[in-house]
Amino acid sequence: MDYILKYKYYRIISISVLIIFWTIVSETVNNSIAIPTPLETSNSLIDIIISEVFLSQVLNSIVRILISFLISLSLGLVLGILSGSFSAINNLLSPVILILRAIPSMAVILLSLIWLSREFAPILVGVLVIFPLIYSAVVDGILNVDKKLIEMVNIYKFSNKKKLFHLYLPWVRSSLVSVCAAAISLNVKVTIAAEVLSQPQYSIGSGFQMERVALNTAGILAWAIVAIVLAGILEKIVKILFYRAGKNQLVR
């Protein structure tokens, strides 16, 4: 309890110092287009939240973020387990994963806009960016399973299904929690970035673009706050779900 209170205390101090520094810089520059004040940004944030389309914008972006994350997680688990179990598949997929890791995010966004409609392009961008992270975490987890545990399940003649659910998945879960938490936050960033360029009818990215066209820097910062809060909430949800999945696995 004391640790939690101390942690929250330090976070409050950090945010307060940031706001004070922001206020000093904005007052010194004295140009709301370059650096708006925290008050101007707060007013823009309120205007955005009370607008009629805010809920639609946020929900549509959340749907795209979750779809791309779930696709990446599913592909990462299936292909990661296969690659960790069979070296031939691992060698076959290694060049693909290397390419996906190395290709610039902007190139992925532009190619997605060419291949798909503006509504679905951000989903593909999210998958192509975060899938390699999840895949690599699963492969590393499978390859690092304790050899003695593998020998034990072989001695007791566990079926492949039992090996998967009682050995490999629990072992991978510990490394997958932090990776998936980071991946969902990264997914928020790249999906919104793709939305800025593709401009779906209702999305957070479209909100960013509208404020940019209007030269409303306070509005851009306000949308950035929305994105930061959204990323924090989704990251927390992912950690809670993995924690509960682990408890259910122990109960079984």
From TrEMBL:
One of its GO terms (cellular component) is plasma membrane. It is a multi-pass membrane protein. This is ABC transporter permease subunit. InterPro entries: MetI-like, MetI-like_sf. It comes from Criibacterium bergeronii. PROSITE patterns: ABC_TM1. It comes from the Bacteria. Pfam families: BPD_transp_1 (PF00528).
